[in-house]
From TrEMBL:
This is OsmC family protein. It comes from the Bacteria. It comes from Tenacibaculum pelagium. Pfam families: OsmC.
């Protein structure tokens, strides 16, 4: 059985500066100056948007390769949108996908469907429960 996918995040004593370790990789997380951080790295939301965009692009590339479709470079721009409603601020995400090479309408329809099958996006959509506990 494969090792569990995980990320260990340690919030340092420097405002909101956090350090994350994933396998043999490290990342820095922080908040911008206007939010009380020191702007030493992307915010958690920016990492989430990056995770979704990278997962969607990888999922699309894997599918296109299986179909032997040469779509060229794939760009996924993920943006957080905020809308003021009667209930307060409602947040949503917008994905804009583009391909370097021309694609047919049939490919466009299928690739749009496949983009929705990205495992990270599925987690965000609420298909993965999160069990939270405090350990000593």
């Amino acid at each position: 059985m494969a090792a569990k996918t995980s990320s260990k995040v340690t919030l340092t004593n420097r405002n909101y500066l956090a350090e994350a370790k994933m396998r043999n990789h490290f990342a820095v997380i922080d908040e911008p100056l206007d939010k009380g951080g020191d702007d030493n790295g992307p915010t958690p939301v920016e990492y989430l948007l990056t995770a979704i965009g990278s997962c969607v692009s990888i999922t699309l590339r894997m599918y296109a390769q299986r179909k032997k479709w040469d779509v060229g470079e794939i760009v996924v721009n993920v943006t957080q949108k905020e809308e003021l409603t009667k209930e307060g601020i409602k947040k949503s995400l917008v994905e804009e996908i583009s391909f370097e090479k021309e694609i047919t309408e049939e490919q466009r329809v299928k690739l749009l469907e496949i983009a929705g099958k990205c495992p990270v996006a599925k987690m965000v959509k609420g298909e993965t429960p999160i069990a939270t506990k405090i350990i000593s």
